[in-house]
Design brief:
1 helix; 7-stranded antiparallel sheet; mainly beta
């Protein structure tokens, strides 16, 4: 899927899922919840399934493929007791589509993981990985895209890692 649409969709789902409050009441009547100062003050996991339809071009065959599928999102968000936050999101998308002009059937499988660790202060680590596999009617037209991005800084805010590696290829 297009990188920008995946990032926008992921950010939108992250905002939507953080706003969703589904935590059970963990205190019994008359009993206070005791937590140490370093314990998480918010620890929330949300899951959603989102159906979608998108048109993509397979660069290996030249087909425009109209794909219908579903994405399963899992997001874990935590504010720690030291003024930091931690986000871990994973999405798994599966779908099928018809290519034009070939009218062949395609299968799509994509996973995206994103994590952000931001403890107290200016230090942070952001990492994202995407794996896309488009299985075409002919093996020679199968398409793979893999992308890894990582950026981090030290406690003073100075960048320590800036890494991006990606590739696309036709396989078969």
């Amino acid at each position: 899927m297009r990188r920008s649409s995946a990032l926008v969709a992921g950010a939108g789902m992250a905002l939507f899922m953080v706003a969703c409050e589904r935590t059970p009441d963990v205190t019994a009547p008359g009993r206070a919840l005791a937590t140490p100062a370093s314990a998480a003050i918010v620890d929330q996991t949300n899951e959603r399934d989102v159906p979608w339809t998108v048109e993509e071009q397979n660069p290996c065959s030249g087909d425009n493929v109209i794909i219908t599928g579903s994405t399963h999102f899992v997001m874990h968000f935590m504010f720690d007791g030291n003024l930091g936050y931690h986000i871990d999101t994973r999405s798994s998308s599966k779908g099928t589509g018809i290519g034009v002009p070939s009218f062949g059937t395609y299968k799509v499988d994509e996973t995206i993981s994103y994590s952000e660790q931001n403890p107290e202060g200016d230090q942070f680590v952001v990492r994202q990985e995407e794996r896309l596999l488009i299985l075409a009617p002919k093996k020679a037209d199968n398409y793979i895209r893999h992308m890894i991005f990582k950026f981090s800084s030290d406690p003073s805010g100075a960048p320590t890692v800036d890494f991006e590696r990606s590739y696309t290829k036709c396989v078969g």
